[in-house]
Fold each of these.
Amino acid sequence: MASTTIHVGKDLRAERLAAAANFRRRMTDAGTFVVRLLSSPGAGKTTLLEKTAELLGHSNSVGILVGDVETERDAARLAPYAPSVQITTGGACHLELPLIERALPDLGARPPEFLFVEDIGNLICPASHDLGEHLRVIVLSTTEGDDKPGKYPKAFRTSQVVVLSKTDLLPHVPFCLNRAKEDARLVQSALQFFEVSALHDRGIDDWCEFLHQQRALMLSGARGVFCNE
Ligand SMILES: Nc1nc2c(ncn2[C@@H]2O[C@H](COP(=O)(O)OP(=O)(O)OP(=O)(O)O)[C@@H](O)[C@H]2O)c(=O)[nH]1
Ligand SMILES: [Mg+2]
């Protein structure tokens, strides 16, 4: 079959990356540290955000944008801890920057000091989209198997942090923390790891302290592990 190439006259990928970089710069200027969570469905993103927003909320303003294919359940869960807006995609498997920009004003007149974006549970498509976040975090739960980093490398290659979640279940599941870390480091050697049980409030202090430090580095213009081009 004959094929035809259509020239649209512009590089759409480059335009999207430029828009994401522009959003990141605006958030930096506003003092908003943007943290995006990726994971497979049910890894514990919303539970981690409940505990994170509760703790950070003692000293900072927090806002949460949460994506799902259907329902407002996650925003309803998060609402007691921080202003939260649900973005329902109606089928799309990842969030995109225009959805974030449209939803952000619904969190309040001023952007929060910490803005969390929970992407749709999926380790494949979200990894290909820059939403203008400073920090990209994978939540990998102990019920998923410690072989996942090598099987879903792009998500790990494009992130700076891995939160190993549901550590309270380690006695009951065949998951080796060191094996998961080694597999992830083969994909990206600079990854930082946090071991957390959100259900049992373990590891949340260290995780929140790290977020405080990274935001402070952003505000001072110093380099952190985050993306700040
Ligand atoms: N044992 C244990 N269960 C947890 C922990 N964190 C979350 N869960 C449970 O795991 C299930 C999924 O948690 P969520 O926080 O909804 O996961 P999610 O990643 O937000 O899920 P989606 O948004 O649907 O992708 C719930 O039943 C939680 O109670 C944990 O630290 N330990
Ligand atoms: Mg969720």
Note: Residues 12-30 form the longest helix (19 residues).
Amino acid sequence: MAVSEAISTKWLTQGPLVSKFEDALCRYLANNNRENHLRGAAVSSGSAALFLAFKALEIGNGDEVLVPTYACSSLLNAVHLVGATPIILDISDTDFNPTVDMVSKKITDNTRALVLTHTFGVPTDTMAFKELGIRVIEDCAQSIGAKYRGENVGRLGDIATFSFFATKMITTGHGGMVVSDDTTLVERVRDYCNYDGGKEYYPRFNFQMTDFQAALGLSQLDRLSGFIAKRLSCTGRYESALGEKNSFMRQTAVGPGLANGYRFALKLGSNLANAEKLMLDKGITCIRPIIPEELLHRCLDLSPSDFPCAESVAANTLSFPIFPSLSEDQIIRIVDGLTELKDSIDSK
Ligand SMILES: Cc1ncc(COP(=O)(O)O)c(C=O)c1O
């Protein structure tokens, strides 16, 4: 409805709805505080947002950017496309994010920035990483709505990026956003996104979002708290089915973090293949979200033995269906499957 109304205005490119979406996302991140200093620049994808965040921070040749290995290859691509060198980090097998210790060991004189992904919507303590004295980019592609110490992720780093791809918490089809309270950084992103109309020539590009995408983004943002509530209600029911004894299998936040329910991921180890089959027999497809071959250190031919936790998480983790449009019947089927899984593990 919002999209067809936007199209009926005949404004097909970037226009007033994009600005409205940028402001609305910033207000959301600032817990509805209209006095916030956050600014947003809507872009064409989460990948573009990462690339543009690096550009805005003037990261390039000779600079090192720290990225977790258990992440989408989009991170690696963005680092390479600005000509910087990716330095790959292992992760903790509790929250699937790097630890401060892992990061501090890799900092050199050439380190310019760290990317944190708040993996699968499980937030990490951005401020603890900022204390290391490096720039922090929060890649919130999966984690919008997750909180750490009551603050939304995407507020505490130097700059944050978002993806609105179809499988994310909210969608505009393809799309993304760069957000920061540093106006200079956001203006650099805006400038780079539009190759037309500059007073002096230097290479820029077209990474813009359209108004009808922004119309969808605005209506999705209105529904975000409902989406999160549904995901967290499913999380609670899945956890109850597993029982406390099996809670060690869950990916969980470390410290005062509140996940957004983007995934329900279990580290199943030797039970993984059985679990996959048990669920499939009930008509429930689970996925292995990142398999070992996709780990970023493997893309760079680095030794798997230097990334033991990520290797183990990638080989042993299964993600169970969790999304806002799950019907009650589907949820009950998943809960039954998890109960059976728990019984089969407990009886061993
Ligand atoms: C953590 C992370 N960053 C970046 C991206 C890239 O986003 P997009 O697909 O919108 O380019 C993704 C997409 O899956 C992602 O999960």
Note: The two ends are 53 Å apart (CA to CA).
Amino acid sequence: MDFYEVIKTAGTARYYKEDPIPDDVLTRVLDAARWAPQGGNRQPNRYVVVRDPAKKQALRELYFPLWRNYLEAAGVGEIAIRGNAIPKLLKDADIFADNFHKVPVIVVVCAHMEDIHPTDLELERDPIVYGASVYPAVQNMLLAARAEGLGGSLTTLLCAEEPKVKALLNIPDGYATAAHVALGYLSVPFPSKLTRLPLTDVVFSEEFGTPMYTAE
Ligand SMILES: Cc1cc2nc3c(=O)[nH]c(=O)nc-3n(C[C@H](O)[C@H](O)[C@H](O)COP(=O)(O)O)c2cc1C
């Protein structure tokens, strides 16, 4: 597949077939993750591949109430969601949450916190650099999945239940759960176009606010 086609059509998958992912395909997807850059090349990420139905069911029982709280907050405007298809997004995500346990693979992304060196701790805002050594690998995984014809979803809601997830999967002290990535073949077509802001709105030249591109 063309590289840019992969990027532009790797949307968040909500509807999965229950067919298993062949081992060689899954291996290539996981292998893609480890080539991502990390601060100091300290390689903090570890991945727990969950395929066991009982474990996936347990994850679903933890995920679903978190999702429903989010849905409620989104419904009353406490959490902002962008776009012109919000009801569809929420409906799709609700069905995804209900069927979380049926997704063939859930990859729990674990980060060894000692190997993360955030460079923005002294600023008067919440740090954002913590995730910078972790999520490039997740995106590698998602793009590799798309190139292999698999759908994928990056989720972080379940991170709120980290102690329970760590107990379920025997994740040692010192590791944080950074994401839960769903992977599987889709039961619907891939999106042909994701909803994103145009280049004219997001790229500036030399100083913030001076557009680098103009709309055609
Ligand atoms: C950091 C992050 C966390 C996310 N967490 C969740 C989640 O917990 N549950 C979920 O259903 N989707 C989650 N998503 C998916 C987003 O809702 C999705 O990327 C967004 O709606 C855009 O959809 P699209 O990529 O299909 O265009 C997350 C995405 C990101 C980048």
Note: The first helix runs from residue 3 to 9.
